[in-house]
Structures are given as structure tokens and as C-alpha cells.
């Protein structure tokens, strides 16, 4: 964990020091390519894993449950914040 | 939406190739993924460090606006913890790690797979990463499809909080349409802030 966060902070420092360099502003593209490569590699290890392939529907069901929970939680919290902090202003 | 399809496509392609045993085992068992992840995190760091908008955003923060990402984070984490009561197979921290992907499925699933490997073992860590990927993709789909319903029943901020880390790019058009144009800035600000928190929350919960 500390390696990952440490490397990211290293990147933040480098990015801040080199922020004048034009092409670093376009780092979004290589980031998405790296993410695609990593997801491809994750896919390879998922596909090669017979236990996961045969469990895919169970895992998918659990994923659906978590997605329902996280969406419900954030929507409810949004409703509270909207009701108590934002609504008056938009009515005024 | 096209971006999400490409992402899912790459994952599916990897699944097929792995399933067909078309690649040498060394690709899976080696540390390649780990180094690519380090490379990715370094790039993510650079993008944060050299972001010219970062200063403007930090200066334009009004306390009230912070309530929106705060609602997303607290609401998501409370309900992730609650749902772990139903998913007895996984610990509450595993569920919190998945929830704190905030729909940023690519980064969160990879981080979880790698960071959980030392404690859970390759098998369970890969399973958890797969759940994280699917759960966060489904959350983005909910945010895209549910936006009109969320506005109707839970107010105009609801699509923003549901969208999590995606509200500055993939779900921004739909939020603009249903929540109103005046919330575009709130939505972008919210997305950037939640996006920044993903690596921290995910690695924090993975370490517990």
C-alpha cells in the first residue's frame, strides 16, 4: 500500500516541478492506455482462473448488490444535503 | 459511454485470451502487473501535480460545495459497510474498499487485486478485484440510466452523488441534462475531488 501511495506522491512532486513542460499536460492519454493494459492483464488472470469463471454469476450477483447499496447510500446522502443546505437557496 | 465500452472490451478480451490459455503462465504469475500498476500510479501522480486547474479549483472551494462530495463519500461508505452484513464471505473492509472505488472501476479493481494479494492470496484477491470491477461499472450504469429518477425523488444533487468519481467526464452530459446547467461546475468539482480520493480510500481499506 505504501509503495503505491509513495509512488503516486513521487509522481505528484515530479509533475509539480515539471508542470511548465507542455507534453506533461497531455498525460491523460497514456494514463488511459496504461489502464487498458492493466484491465487486459486483469482479464487474462480472471479468464485463466477456472474457479472465477465458474463463479462469475455469483460474483456478478455480489457486485450488483454492492452497486445497489453504494448508489442508494450516495443518493440518500445527496437528498439530505440538498434538502437542508441547497433547497432554500434555489427557492429564494 | 464509448469509453466504458472500450474498457469493458479490453477486460473481456483479456478474459477470453486467459480462458483459452493463449498466453504463457509467466504473464499471470509474474510481477508484470505490479510494475505496470506502479507506472500507472506514477502517471496519476504527475497528472495531479502538473494540473493547472488544481490551484483554481482549490481556490474556488466554498465550504458548502464540499458537502456534495462529502455526501457521496459518507453515503457510499455507510451503505458499503451495511451491505457487508449480507455478503458474509467478505469482511467489512473488503466491501468498503470496493465501495470506495466510487464508480472509478478501472483503477479501483486493479488496486484491490494487487493490494489484497499478500493477505487474501491470489485467488480471493482476483475474485475481489473482479467484484470491484463489476460493482463499479454497474454503479456508473445506474448513474447514467437512473439520473432522471434520482432527480425526481431525491433532488438535483442525487445524480451527482450517484455518479461518484465519474461526474466530471462520463456522466457529466447526463447530469447536465437532468440536474440543470447551473450544477455543471458542482458536478466537475465533485468528480475531480472524489476521483482524487479513490487511491487513498481503496489502499487504506485494503490495508485494514
Automatic annotation (TrEMBL), chain A:
<dbReference type="GO" id="GO:0015661">
    <property type="term" value="F:L-lysine efflux transmembrane transporter activity"/>
</dbReference>
<keyword id="KW-1133">Transmembrane helix</keyword>
<keyword id="KW-0472">Membrane</keyword>
<dbReference type="Pfam" id="PF03956">
    <property type="entry name" value="Lys_export"/>
</dbReference>
<protein>
    <recommendedName>
        <fullName>DUF340 domain-containing protein</fullName>
    </recommendedName>
</protein>
<keyword id="KW-0812">Transmembrane</keyword>
<feature type="transmembrane region" description="Helical">
    <location>
        <begin position="6"/>
        <end position="21"/>
    </location>
</feature>
<dbReference type="InterPro" id="IPR005642">
    <property type="entry name" value="LysO"/>
</dbReference>
<feature type="transmembrane region" description="Helical">
    <location>
        <begin position="59"/>
        <end position="82"/>
    </location>
</feature>
<feature type="transmembrane region" description="Helical">
    <location>
        <begin position="33"/>
        <end position="53"/>
    </location>
</feature>
Automatic annotation (TrEMBL), chain B:
<dbReference type="InterPro" id="IPR005642">
    <property type="entry name" value="LysO"/>
</dbReference>
<feature type="transmembrane region" description="Helical">
    <location>
        <begin position="66"/>
        <end position="85"/>
    </location>
</feature>
<feature type="transmembrane region" description="Helical">
    <location>
        <begin position="124"/>
        <end position="151"/>
    </location>
</feature>
<protein>
    <recommendedName>
        <fullName>Lysine exporter LysO family protein</fullName>
    </recommendedName>
</protein>
<keyword id="KW-0472">Membrane</keyword>
<feature type="transmembrane region" description="Helical">
    <location>
        <begin position="183"/>
        <end position="205"/>
    </location>
</feature>
<dbReference type="GO" id="GO:0015661">
    <property type="term" value="F:L-lysine efflux transmembrane transporter activity"/>
</dbReference>
<keyword id="KW-1133">Transmembrane helix</keyword>
<keyword id="KW-0812">Transmembrane</keyword>
<feature type="transmembrane region" description="Helical">
    <location>
        <begin position="36"/>
        <end position="54"/>
    </location>
</feature>
<feature type="transmembrane region" description="Helical">
    <location>
        <begin position="91"/>
        <end position="112"/>
    </location>
</feature>
<dbReference type="Pfam" id="PF03956">
    <property type="entry name" value="Lys_export"/>
</dbReference>
<dbReference type="GO" id="GO:0005886">
    <property type="term" value="C:plasma membrane"/>
</dbReference>
Amino acid at each position: 500500500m505504501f509503495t503505491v501511495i509513495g509512488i503516486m506522491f513521487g509522481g505528484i512532486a515530479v509533475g509539480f516541478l515539471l508542470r511548465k513542460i507542455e507534453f506533461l499536460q497531455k498525460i491523460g492519454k497514456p494514463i488511459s492506455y496504461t489502464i487498458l493494459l492493466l484491465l487486459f492483464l486483469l482479464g487474462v488472470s480472471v479468464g485463466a482462473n477456472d474457479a472465477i469463471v465458474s463463479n462469475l454469476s455469483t460474483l456478478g450477483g455480489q457486485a450488483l448488490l454492492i452497486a445497489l447499496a453504494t448508489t442508494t447510500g450516495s443518493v440518500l446522502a445527496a437528498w439530505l444535503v440538498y434538502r437542508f443546505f441547497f433547497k432554500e437557496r434555489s427557492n429564494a | 459511454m464509448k469509453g466504458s465500452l472500450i474498457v469493458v472490451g479490453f477486460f473481456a478480451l483479456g478474459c477470453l485470451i486467459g480462458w483459452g490459455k493463449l498466453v504463457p503462465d509467466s504473464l499471470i504469475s509474474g510481477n508484470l502487473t505490479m510494475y505496470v500498476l506502479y507506472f500507472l500510479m506514477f502517471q496519476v501522480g504527475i497528472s495531479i501535480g502538473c494540473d493547472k486547474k488544481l490551484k483554481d479549483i482549490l481556490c474556488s472551494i466554498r465550504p458548502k460545495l464540499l458537502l456534495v462530495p462529502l455526501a457521496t463519500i459518507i453515503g457510499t461508505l455507510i451503505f458499503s459497510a451495511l451491505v457487508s452484513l449480507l455478503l458474509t464471505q467478505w469482511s467489512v473492509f473488503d466491501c468498503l474498499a470496493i465501495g470506495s472505488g466510487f464508480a472509478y472501476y478501472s483503477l479501483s479493481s486493479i488496486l484491490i487485486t494487487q493490494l489484497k494479494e499478500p493477505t487474501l492470496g491470489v485467488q480471493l484477491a482476483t475474485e475481489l478485484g473482479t467484484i470491484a470491477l463489476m460493482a463499479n461499472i454497474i454503479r456508473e450504469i445506474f448513474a447514467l440510466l437512473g439520473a432522471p429518477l434520482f432527480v425526481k425523488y431525491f433532488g438535483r444533487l442525487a445524480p451527482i452523488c450517484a455518479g461518484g468519481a465519474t461526474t466530471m467526464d462520463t456522466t457529466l452530459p447526463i447530469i447536465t441534462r437532468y440536474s440543470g446547467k447551473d450544477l455543471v461546475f458542482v458536478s466537475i468539482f465533485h468528480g475531480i475531488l472524489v476521483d482524487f480520493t479513490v487511491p487513498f480510500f481503496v489502499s487504506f481499506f485494503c490495508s485494514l
